[in-house]
Structures are given as C-alpha cells and as structure tokens.
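Researcher: I'd like a structural prediction for the single chain below. Treat it as a standalone chain; there are no partners to consider.
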Amino acid sequence: TSEVPNESSLVPPIVVLKEHETSYYRRSDVEIKNRICGEIQYAAKQAQLAFKIADMAFDETISTRNFLIEATSSI
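Model: Treating it as a single chain, here is the predicted structure.
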C-alpha cells in the first residue's frame, strides 16, 4: 500500500546550523517572504486600477475625453 503524503511530510526537516548560519538563512527567508508579499501587493494594486478603468469605461456620466485623461494619468 502506498501512503498519500500529508502536508507535514512535505515540509523539509529542521536543520540545526551554527549561529551565524542561522541568522543568514532567517534573513534570506524574510527577504524572500517580503519579495513575494511585495509582488502580491503590486498585482492587487494593478487589478484595482484595471477595475477602476473598466468601471469608468462603462460610466455614461464620464465623457470620452475625461475617460482618456483619467485612464492615461492612472497608467
């Protein structure tokens, strides 16, 4: 019988490192996490901008001229 791996079996084992190595790896992990979070925040802001422009495109109270000004200044 084969076992289906559970989530905890997919986590790599904890490795005990020397003090200077531990701080290096922790800093690296934090940098990776911050980079990923930054990319997600950027994608979310771009999505919000796209929805704002789409809403303005279908808003009959906004003239084509004002729409173009708003859209190009947002980008």
